[in-house]
Write a structure and sequence with these properties.
The structure is a single chain. The protein has about 240 residues and is mainly α. The chain has one domain. The protein is elongated and about 75 Å long.
């Protein structure tokens, strides 16, 4: 996965994914979201009964879809703060799935009967994801740096005044990406996190299916559930 990198390295890594500007970034992000959702299709067609664990699995899929589309919108709005904060949440969605894969019985901690005591601590989740994907922690720390008050977002509201050779700065309250490379990095991370979420969701689903014979009867709550998967938003050029 891609954390902090030089401008040249960021462009090169993004280009390998077909991301060279905002339009291609949106295109690749849309394809990545569709691939993530396709990960669920065989499971959804084969399993219509619902348990508390199934509810949690579906909620994780919904969260992933929601974060992915929200990041696409915020990149379009040129807002790095909301973009990277949402990418961090997207990463946490993957991390909890990595942790639960070896403990599928604990999916109910995300279910409707869960209490405050069932909340997860993020440290063990990030550690579990890093065990599966060594670069995960560095990416998470980078996203946390932008999400928390720090130097990373300092220049998001500054720019050199156009056509001014004196080098004067212009400040505005509305943030924007500091460079084209930062925007490309956001799209690159979005594509990578879609792949990670899809892989981890599939792994967790397989683990839960193996655990199903042991699910308590009181956790089986419905049959013949209908499932639906939405389409990512279109890319529209600025007027």
């Amino acid at each position: 996965m891609t954390g902090r990198a030089s401008a040249g390295d960021t462009r090169a890594m993004a280009a390998k994914r077909g991301i060279v500007d905002a339009a291609t970034g949106h295109e690749m992000a849309s394809k990545a979201l569709r691939a993530f959702m396709r990960e669920a299709e065989p499971y959804l067609k084969a399993n219509t009964d619902m348990t508390l664990g199934h509810m949690a699995l579906m909620a994780l899929l919904t969260r992933g879809h929601a974060f992915h589309e929200a990041v696409m919108r915020e990149i379009k709005q040129d807002n790095p703060f909301s973009t990277f904060a949402l990418l961090r949440s997207y990463a946490e969605n993957a991390a909890v799935m990595a942790w639960l894969t070896s403990r599928p019985m604990e999916l109910i901690r995300l279910g409707p009967l869960a209490t405050e005591r069932d909340r997860f601590k993020i440290g063990p989740l990030v550690a579990a994801a890093t065990n599966e994907l060594p670069g995960f922690r560095k990416v998470y720390e980078y996203l946390s740096g932008y999400s928390h008050p720090s130097h990373l977002g300092l220049l998001a509201s500054y720019a050199v005044a156009p056509n001014d050779e004196s080098g004067r700065f212009r400040w505005q309250s509305r943030p924007r990406f500091r460079s084209d490379e930062e925007l490309l990095q956001a799209y690159l991370l979005l594509v990578e996190l879609a792949e990670v979420n899809g892989t981890f969701w599939g792994n967790l689903t397989d683990a839960y299916i193996a655990y199903l014979p042991n699910v308590p009867e009181e956790d089986r709550i419905a049959t013949q559930t209908d499932f639906g998967v939405g389409e990512p938003p279109p890319f529209e050029e600025d007027e």
